[in-house]
Amino acid sequence: MGHHITDGGVVGSRASVTRRRLRALALATALALGGGTLTAACGDSGSAQGGGPTAIMVGSGESIFDLPMRVAQAKGYFQKQGLKVTFVSTNASTGPAALESGSVHFLNSSPTGFLSALAKGIPQVAIAADGLGNPLGIVVSKKFADANKLSGSTPVEQVAKALGNSIGGASSANTKAQASMFLKARGVDPAKVKWVSLPSPAANKAALTSGQIDWFITSEPTPLSIEHAGEGVVVADPLRAPEWSPEQSGYGEFVVVRKDYLEKNPEIAKKFVAAVQEATAYMNGHLHDADLLNLTSKEMSGIPVPVLEASLQHAGWPTSAAMDDATWKKTLDFVNGLGVLPKVMTVTSNDWTNKYVPSGGGA
């Protein structure tokens, strides 16, 4: 993961190198890349091969907020900008490290991940907002729902009261903090919950269906997928818990890059942001359209269309990738309120910019 991608040709090659050696090297490189390995024969700006598209590596995950990247790829927006994108699977813990090492050029990052990196002194900068709000869902087991008479229409105050005497799953300090904030806001002491630490949302799902835990919280589309399969009931979401809404929690996802990469490759950054902005604007205007829903279902490993349609309503999709101070304040208030960062964070103009947003996106 610590290697870089370089400009297209073979570094240090000479005219005397035989065609056979070149073919062998090309084959070895292709096999390495095909196996998901980044080779040291690549430059920090990405690789533009023979005047063709610029190849870049992008870190992204499997949450609903990663859809703008997938839509930009599937709709040809990256290609239109002359970019050839390869996705590298990252999460909140691996993403910042992958970006810092140069294994990826751009990272789709949550506010918590980005602010955690800043708190550690890692020189990263947010250059676009591609998601708003926190599309979280609390899903309870069918058994727990039946025992406590909970449904999708149960008032969240009643939900919180029931959760106060339960076994909850937590796959990270962040998700536990989000659940605790939900409970505290409704007068329930999170310390009364028996917490079970699990390594991932998938592990939470397995524990829920096996009866090891009563409920857990995570980002969509996992909660709604569980409900759709008849294995649980979603009892809280941003439509019912306003603290998770874009209006209260601010930004939900950013495009993040290293500062030194940005200084060396401003035009690539502009092209990348333009493609992502086109994707979020398209999503904003087509949330119920079959074209978008079928595309996203395919990109999200076959998650059912009804689940994706509902999940898309739980987040905000900006028509402009530009950021502003007021929304940043909401974001900081929300993330700092979780208490998961090593210190209370602020941001300055050194940490985010609209310079690479097209169509007069800001300063």
UniProtKB/TrEMBL annotation:
<dbReference type="InterPro" id="IPR015168">
    <property type="entry name" value="SsuA/THI5"/>
</dbReference>
<protein>
    <submittedName>
        <fullName>ABC transporter substrate-binding protein</fullName>
    </submittedName>
</protein>
<dbReference type="GO" id="GO:0042597">
    <property type="term" value="C:periplasmic space"/>
</dbReference>
<keyword id="KW-0732">Signal</keyword>
<feature type="signal peptide">
    <location>
        <begin position="1"/>
        <end position="40"/>
    </location>
</feature>
<feature type="domain" description="SsuA/THI5-like">
    <location>
        <begin position="68"/>
        <end position="286"/>
    </location>
</feature>
<comment type="similarity">
    <text>Belongs to the bacterial solute-binding protein SsuA/TauA family.</text>
</comment>
<dbReference type="Pfam" id="PF09084">
    <property type="entry name" value="NMT1"/>
</dbReference>
